[in-house]
Amino acid sequence: MLSLLIGIFTLILILICVLLVLVILMQRPSADAGMGASLAGGAAESAFGGETGNVLTRVCVKCIVVFFVLTFSLFLANIYLKSTEKASEEVSAPTMAKELEQLANSSEKAGEAVKKEAADAVQKVNETADKPEAKSDAKVPAPQAK
């Protein structure tokens, strides 16, 4: 449930960010130059009338307040979500300890089996090396020169 709310509030935060960027770009710059004048400086006056400075300033302040409140609440929600996940992991720690003990026991048994197989393989190699048939006295023909 909490992760769903975090997702919804994150989407709202993204929309607030886009709105905030647009409101800041629509404001008239103090020196009548810069990004606001080149992109959307005149659009604000045609949309809001002559009092665009007051309207856009109020909208900008409200968007900034909502932005900071949402950001801080999302931060706290993520901390709470991580702490509850950590607490649920601590509850299952005894179960994990038993599983690790079983895994260690099975790996010790597997290690013993591998050692036995390796010893058998070494013994077979030694036996075949001692047999006279295993030794090859055949001569390899020399390469012919052209």
UniProtKB/TrEMBL annotation:
It is a multi-pass membrane protein. Keywords: Cell membrane, Membrane, Protein transport, Translocation, Transmembrane, Transmembrane helix, Transport. Belongs to the SecG family. Residues 109-119, 127-138 have a biased composition (Basic and acidic residues). It comes from the Bacteria. Involved in protein export. Participates in an early event of protein translocation. The chain crosses the membrane at residues 56-81. The keyword Disulfide bond does not apply. This is Protein-export membrane protein SecG. Pfam families: SecG. It is found in: Cell membrane. Residues 108-146 are annotated as: Disordered. The keyword Nucleotide-binding does not apply. The lineage of its organism: Bacteria, Pseudomonadati, Verrucomicrobiota, Opitutia, Opitutales. InterPro entries: SecG.
